[in-house]
Amino acid sequence: MLANKTVVLGITGSIAAYKAAELASKLTQAGAKVEVVMTGAATEFITPLTLRSVTGRPVVADMFEPALEWSIEHVALAEAADVVAIAPATANIIAKLAFGLADDMVSLTVLATKAPVIIAPAMNVNMFANPVTQGNLAKLKARGFIIVDPGYGRLASGAKGKGRLAELDKIMAAIEGALGGSADLAGKRLVVTAGGTREPIDPVRYIGNPSSGKMGYALAEAARDRGAKVTLISASSLPQPEGITIVPVDTAAQMKRAVTKAVAKADALLMAAAVADYQPKAAAKSKIKKASPNLTLELVRTPDILGEVKGNFIKVGFAAESDNIIANAKKKLAKKKLDLIVANDITAKDSGFGVDTNKVILIAKKGKAESLPLMSKREVADNILDRVVGMLGKKK
Q1: Which end of the chain has fewer beta carbons closer than 10 Å to its terminal beta carbon, N or C?
Q2: Buried b / exposed e across 242-274, counting CB within 10 Å, b at 16+?
Q3: Domains of the chain
Q4: Of 130, 209, 328, 383, which residue is the catalytic one?
Q5: For the purposes of burial, counting CB atoms within 10 Å of the CB of 369, is it exposed (0-12), middle (13-18) or buried (19 or more)?
Q6: Distance of alpha carbon 247 from alpha carbon 256, whole angstroms
């Protein structure tokens, strides 16, 4: 997604400016061409030499002395940008941008660019909460700027509150999401499920499984980065990704209701969640005491979400198997009338629940089983989405 993309990274005068070096490094390692522009105040916190060492590119801090590679026009970087990200963004630069000022290289670049602009504020908690700052952010958001909200925690002043620069992974995700606007899933709506459902036995116990939700989250993030509008229906406790609509659920029944509502306008459903097959017939309202050495539960089937949900969209299912992988997956593919099923051996090393890698077999409705090598779940997600893109193309 970032390979060969030009990311203009704007750095302003915040104590969090030192984090921009790590962000620039991450972007460069991901294949982006990182062009750094700085305000004069930013150079008091971190030197242009540091950023140049990280990116291997000239740094522009003076609007009257652009780097030699660029034309003499001050807007050269703005025109070259695929995305502009200001991290950290001070209250001062936010105010300038809200009113269209352009008296430094950062504000000038933003005013002159047609690329998406991402703002990652970092400032004192009271400055961030001030109605003036909030009003300026609202103006920018209304104009299409992407705001990556700051995190809550201890600030440089010693105070605690909302104002510290967002985690770099969130800023990276926002950049990747902004670049996805021209990708192969642009304009498409995808619904993804993730995590293992929990079917309550009593207020403190439940029937569940060890699914972490990592595969579903990888799918949701990959789809977002390829331009899709993603709804993630999650029974997982993983951190919420940026740029994705999250619908939290606990039980299979809740997931079914959420999926039924979400797919009404969807182009594809990717059911990566590990939905419990059974639930207690009736959950106890009070905690069950250890009155006897044995406990008997009457279980009933949970809703068959994939089999019951209907609509004119691509349906992708997952089959976590321990034996007869392909045969069992093909049965599920046919029974639930899926367009594609993703099967994996949960007993295989580095391919079960909770790990960051997966080794899967893709089986299409009218195709042969295709085994993929062991790869990261993000790489698996992109392979799955490649097939979904092809299927969506045939629907036209």
Answers
A1: C
A2: bbbeebebebbebbbbbbeebbeebbbbbbbbb
A3: 6-179 (3.40.50.1950), 184-395 (3.40.50.10300)
A4: 209
A5: middle
A6: 12
Distance separating alpha carbons of residues 13 and 104, to the nearest angstrom: 12
Say if residues 177 and 224 touch (Cβ distance below 8 Å).
yes
User: What is the value of pTM for the model shown?
Assistant: 0.68
Q: Rounding to the nearest 10 degrees, give the CA dihedral for residues 52, 57, 62, 63.
A: -160
The encoded tokens of residue 379 equal 């790489």
Residue 209 annotated among the catalytic residues of the structure = yes
How does pLDDT run along the chain (396 residues), one tens digit per residue? 788 899 999 999 999 999 999 999 999 998 999 999 999 999 999 999 999 999 999 999 887 765 545 545 568 889 999 999 999 999 999 999 999 999 999 999 999 999 999 999 999 999 999 999 999 999 999 999 999 999 887 777 777 788 899 989 889 888 988 887 557 898 899 999 999 999 999 999 999 999 999 999 999 999 988 889 999 999 999 988 878 999 999 999 999 999 999 999 999 999 999 999 999 999 999 998 887 788 889 999 999 999 999 999 999 999 988 889 999 999 999 999 999 999 998 888 777 788 889 999 999 988 789 999 998 898 899 999 999 999 998 776
